[in-house]
Amino acid sequence: MSTPRATKVTPLSGFPEYLPEQRVVEQHFIDVIRSTFELHGFPSIETRAVEPVERLLGKGGDADKEIYGIHRLADDAGAGAPARESELGLHFDLTVPFARYVVENAGRLAFPFRRHQIQKVWRGERPQEGRYREFTQCDIDVVDVGELAPHFEAEMPLVMAEIFAKLPIPPMVIQVNNRKIPEGFYRGLGIEDVAGTLRIIDKLDKIGRDKVAALLVEAGRTAEQAEACLDLAAIRTEDTSFVDRVRELGVEHPVLEEGLAALASVIETGMAAAPGAMVADLRIARGLDYYTGTVYETQLVGHESWGSFCSGGRYDELASDGKNTYPGVGISIGLSRLLGLLLGKGLVSASRMSPSAVLVAVTDEGSRPASVAVATALRARGIPCEVAPAAAKFGKQIRFAERRGIPYVWFPDAGESGDQVKDIRSGEQVDADASTWACPPEDLRPQVLAVGE
After folding, report:
1. Residue 367 to residues 354, 378, 388, 413, 417: CA-CA distances in angstroms?
2. Cα–Cα distance between 406 and 420 in angstroms, integer?
3. Contact 174, 271 (CB under 8 A)
4. Environment class of 81 (CB within 10 Å of its CB; exposed 0-12, middle 13-18, buried 19+)
5. In this predicted model, what pLDDT tens digit does every residue of 332-345 receive, in sequence order?
């Protein structure tokens, strides 16, 4: 008889997997995000994981370098094999497949159409802290036919501000800009390559002002144009005073004026509805070319070096069926990125790894049915519990619960009047009835807390 061969397990970077207590944190975040999206009237959809590569290509930035292509292994089965079907790739965000979804289902959707989507995406970039090749995004978008009302551009960051206020994370700030501001400003300077200039400015956080200035000059801008672009990007205000500061730079263009008015409206709405949650930051560019209006990025206060974990913007030309154009605006939380940094730095944790609030002890294997009956009665009343895996000494069963963070151990027929339950944290043990015992609300489910709470 042959002996099974041992298989060496090799870690695969960029594809995060969570331990049970970390998964508790992830699920809590998802629950808060999903419930808040629904509170604001965003129904859920899910799109397929793949799109034709030709659709994914050309959507801006370095998307062509990030797409994972997929095919059946049998397609490479030597000479004479039939030609592959249309090339497919895994989607690198949720906006491109959503745009396709809107066009395909336009006749069955009610516009303006709003949706939320919490789903995996894939990008072929170099794995590093907070950046993965497979990760979860949480998106909301609103699209309309022909024209999209500008007030939706102010709604997006307000929803996110509400979510982050509910999560156990440090304070956050949503940085808002409007692509028409740099576009009009650059054109007013005589710069025609707006997209190329934006992509260089988008590197400011990574390489700094001097290197960005050098890249701009290398790309054909004059030193004076480069300085003006950087002066614009340096403007950041918590109110609408950015308008005057831009005008002080002495550049004029109609598109610039449109952008200033649109951004001022968004910031005014934020100041009224969520004071301190938004700032006008004119260095925010977003690397993807499909953004045409308001754009967003988000940072945790005190952890700015982490970069943005929530971003998005307005797009006017991403979705079209030839007759109609479907402009939209959306914003997305990079959930895996945020959790990777929070968990990696020990800034958030779960109170326990197990969903069980109660471990029902087993006196001996003959009495296991009685323990199962207790567990069934507790579950019927919404109290998560499990039965001890073995009829070991009670001390060992208590240690089993301790290792999993289960706060209560139930002992069937332990007292003169019947069952007893023990809070293993305080040591308090009292008589209890499975049909009436109330688990304290704070112990009913694992709690997710910022470390230090």
Report:
1. 24, 17, 12, 10, 18
2. 16
3. no
4. exposed
5. 999 999 999 999 99
